[in-house]
């Protein structure tokens, strides 16, 4: 399904898009970042928090590292109240993801992962390749929401297409 090289490409795309999103978000006032704009997670700040929360949750399963200290869903929007601290945590998470993908092997991706899902309320086992695909898809999905919020606020992140972003990075 996927390869370690695909994972490294997606980690690079994730990191570059997050740099662009956070640069655009930093040009907004704190009030504008926190304004409820009808997105699933309310505001840009809430959406960025949920993105970090999701990455923390999945990475804790993939590499055994730190889990998010708050629950999922709407609770994830309060992960980091301070935007500057959120930006630092985002950059650290992107470095963690990049490091993790640098060590991936086809054998690891071919295995299964078992975890207890808070969302499903039960133990689940799924192929790692499927879960890693979901991980990167989740990032892209919610970055799209963040991008829409930034665009509505008058900010520009530049190109978002994978082939253009990685060509420019």
Give a summary of the structure in a few sentences.
With 169 residues, this protein is mostly helical.
Structure notes:
A two-stranded antiparallel ribbon has the order 1-2. It is 62% helix and 7% strand. It contains 7 helices and 2 strands; from the N terminus they run αααααββαα. By secondary structure, it is mainly alpha-helical. The model has no long low-confidence stretch (mean pLDDT 93). α1 runs antiparallel to α4 (83-102) and α3 packs parallel to α4. It has helices at residues 4-26, 30-34, 44-63, 83-102, 106-110, 128-152, 162-168; strands at 112-117, 122-127. β1 (112-117) and β2 form a beta hairpin.
- Chain oligomer state: single chain
**What structural category characterises the helix and strand content?**
mainly alpha
Kindly estimate the percentage of residues that lie in beta strands according to DSSP.
Answer: 5-15%
Average pLDDT score: 93
Radius of gyration: 16 Å
Read across the widest sheet, the strand sequence of neighbours is: 1-2
The total count of strands amounts to: 2
Shape: globular
Task: List the secondary-structure elements in sequence, H or E.
Answer: HHHHHEEHH
Q: How many angstroms does the end-to-end distance come to? A: 26 Å
Number of helices: 7
Helix coverage percent: 55-70%
Query: Unreliable stretches, pLDDT < 50, 5 or more residues?
Result: none
Major sheet attributes: 2 strands, antiparallel
């Amino acid at each position: 399904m996927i390869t370690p090289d695909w994972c490294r490409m997606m980690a690079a795309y994730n990191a570059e898009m997050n740099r662009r999103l956070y640069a655009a978000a930093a040009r907004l006032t704190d009030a504008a970042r926190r304004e409820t704009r009808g997105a699933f997670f309310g505001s840009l700040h809430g959406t960025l928090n949920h993105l970090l929360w999701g990455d923390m949750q999945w990475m804790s399963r993939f590499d055994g590292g730190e889990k998010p200290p708050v629950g999922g869903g709407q609770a994830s929007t309060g992960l980091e109240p301070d935007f500057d601290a959120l930006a630092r945590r985002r950059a650290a998470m992107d470095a963690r993801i990049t490091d993790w993908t640098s060590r991936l092997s086809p054998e690891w991706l071919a295995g299964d992962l078992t975890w207890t899902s808070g969302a499903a309320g039960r133990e689940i086992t799924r192929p790692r390749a499927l879960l890693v695909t979901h991980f990167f898809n989740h990032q892209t999905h919610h970055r799209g929401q963040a991008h829409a919020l930034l665009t509505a606020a008058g900010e520009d992140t530049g190109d978002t297409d994978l082939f253009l972003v990685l060509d420019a990075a």
